[in-house]
Records
---
Amino acid sequence: MALGATFAALRHRNYRIWAAAGFVSVTGTWMQVLGVNWFVLAETGSATSMGLTVLLQALPTLLLSVWGGALADRLPAKPLLVTAQAAHAVLAAGLAVVALTGAGGLPAVYAISLATGAVSAIEGPVMGRWASTLVDRDSLGNALALGSLTNSAGRILGMSVGAVVVAAVGPALLFAVNAASFVAVVAALLAVREGERHAGGPEAADAGPAGGGIRAGFRYLLGQPVVLVALALSFVLGSLGRNYQVTMAAMSDGPLGGGASGYGFLSTVFAVGTVLGALVAARRAELGYAVLVGAGLLASTLQIVAGLAPGTASFAAVILPVAAAAVVIDTTVGARAQLDTDYAMRGRVLAALAVTGSVAAAVGAPLLGWLAEHAGPRQTLVLAGTVSAVA
């Protein structure tokens, strides 16, 4: 496929604006993630306390995403999204105040993390449904792949710059930068030309369904067996094959003997793999179920090989394509969830996808951690890879 086809979605002016703003926002978000982790770890010296902040941000997704999906299908998106960006900015500014003054301490950080997760849970399906109207149907898969590329690149930049800034001046500046980054998203929302949106035009895109709410969404999903299978496969691959922050740490600290520096190296390699995976997905003319199954088998098989890797270098060589396959899997599931469902139900379908990802992380991370501790990291990778391959 020609290079131009790899970036086909960028032919749409609205998407170009949105992608640029998204990159700025994602970079700021990962700066904040690093800043929060550093602040909590510095205050408590406890990795468990640091994990609690992650849990507090993820928990609302399980509880509130279905409501966000219903809102996405019923209400005009732009006012909701502008309000959400403003809320994110205020919360990030609140973190900056806590970091600078110490006011509220850790309880304030935990409360802001919970509130941030709640805003994200409501916002996610709304943003996903709205963003899908920025390109035509043929370019949607490419747009999702480029979105993965933007997220990966923003993560790498945000974490890299954030590590330098937090070491030099502390986390407060990271929170302030993230607060400012949401201005770019609001500006993009206002700059989008409504007449150039797709899915039948902005009026059709923002019109609510004829009836029903959350229950109607569940009933609709139960009548879509192929989509349900894709979500189930996404859950298995996500829980057993994607929690590499756990297994990479266990392997580096254990049989590989790489320690903290080895874990940092593996994390960087994994991030590079996600960028490559996004490029691979973007070059595909169509992201179908054959791609999903093929990428799943590849990732699962390589996970088994990773468990047998003798050293850090060989483990990294296997992790790179695993990360790439993971992005292809995510992009394909996201594309099918949108292309193979009715537009009037898309917000609720995206909410179901978000809940699936959150449950997979919540179940998989502690399970893999427990297995690595009791059975060994190598055995855990081999077992999880085998189960994923069978699925």
---
Amino acid sequence: MQNNLKVLICDDSTLIRKKLKDILKRCKCEEVFESENGNKAVEMAKLYSPDIVFMDIIMPEKDGIEALKEIREWNPDVKVVMVSSVGTNQHLKRALENGAIDFIQKPVTLEAVTNVLTKVLEEGNVNV
């Protein structure tokens, strides 16, 4: 899957970020940025203007839902995918209400990430 997507990964776990980055590289995403909390994710989204953000929900300093709101206020076109091990309906509902396009349950798999990237590219609402 060749693409020019700019991707931001936001997760407080170094291990999860590494695994997701490895998967994204396998999916031919060349520009992948990382942040470890919601505050940093908002800063990096403004700095790099990613096409898609993979966002953990439960993080220190600022959770993924708050970061999602701020990023989408700044750039309503960015695609945000929530990635979490706590897949409660309440979290998922709040994320979707605030503009998330999808949800991936941890542990993250190549198949789940490929499905999301394919969906985003097929919808064509990204500047690639």
---
Amino acid sequence: MSSARVRHPRVAAVAVASLFVMGAATAPALATPSAAGGHSAVPVHHHAPLPTSYSIPGSKTYPEGIARQQGTPYFYVGSTSDGTIYRGDVDQPATKVFLPGGQDGRTSVAGMKTDRAGRLIVAGGATGKVFVYDTRTRVLLHVFDTGRTDVFLNDVALAPDGDAYISDSVHPALWHISAAELKNKRVQQPLNVGVDLSRSPMVYDDGFNGNGLVVTGDGRYVLLADYNDYAFYRVDTITHKVVPIDLDGAKGISGDGLLLQGHTLTAVTELDHPEGQIATLELSHDYTRAKLVRTVHGHGMHSPSTAAFDGHDLLIVNFQFQIADPHLPFNVVRVHAR
């Protein structure tokens, strides 16, 4: 076990999923989102000025995942402590309960995404389940169940074809939900392994392993972060071959959450950096090599976990993992990205 794991033990009670916190007027420039297979930001016309912070109710909420729903003013965040899902309006400074905690067996949630059909796809952490809701009606559409207790479903990434991939932090598997499974009418369905990582170069040790993930614009690869080992891997969705991404000597880069803009990968972590670290990396054409462009620390981060695009801005969750006396209220912060 590495010294990093000793300093930062991760237990399967709380998720670590998937950039940086600062007022919009003074934020340093980040890469501008560009069109890339559904992973880019879509310009959204808002009322001005927009709030720079969105409060989340509760003193023990510990919000982790976030999903920005395109074509609407809404975003969603979830509580790792009780599974409550909150909905925010980008024009309003406070979020509200969208789905109560504990409902449908959803006792904890981690990463989440919304798809083009208006579905909210939520990784359920140690429940071993993925919950899917209709954001218009709040109706439960699906529960995809691993049937296992030795898992921690951490983050969600969507492919251009509508498939969903889910990282697992304690079991060596990349889980997969097909677009066809999301469209059918069955509520209870098995969650199937997309890629078995047990014999791959990505070695699962004690603590949290598979974490942030993204799908490339052509849908061919999943880029997956190994949180504990400060490593990144390219997973081929067709051949299932797993290749380490060469970081060109960069040290201390971990991926609690990932964002992909063309060949620009942004990784956020609080590992060894309670004030947060955002690393911007430029990837090679085949996604097997990465060159560190810059890192950003501080700027109001309180153990941030993940981010979502909102036009050219970023919406960032201050998770504050394992902090007994967190900064309250818990919040999502808007960052101007260019």
---
Amino acid sequence: MTLAKSAVEAYVGLGSNLEDSVDHVNRARQEIAALPGVVEIAFSPLYRSLPVGPQDQPDYVNAVLRISTELEPLVLLRELQQIENQHGRLRNVRWGARTLDLDVLLYAQQSINEPDLVVPHPELSKRAFVLYPLADVASSDLQIPGLDSLSQLLAACPPDGLRKITV
């Protein structure tokens, strides 16, 4: 496992809409925080959102996890993909239903454009189910590399049926 020279802050998006979605998201939170070189800083409330893509699927449960990590970006991605696989993630249909979806949303203030990883996440600015939980764990003046401040992105992105879940 490759460690970065020093710890950086990163944000991970979590989503699920199959089986017990709340349980998948909560267990993934614990599994990410248990990774060597990762420390949880904050976890957003859970949100329920409408699916993106095919509409013949259940609503999603979404959250954002703010971490400090010593893992390099691609190593973090691979670890997240292993967690998805342990939760039975299948990649059959683009934007299809899934037991667990984990995305590296932000990694320090880096812009990354690799075949397997694009950071900031390419759809981040358009997705209420990412921006609103992100705002729960980040400063509103957080600058999203190549885009704008989080507060400006929020102002341009209505909640579109997004609602907090009370458990």
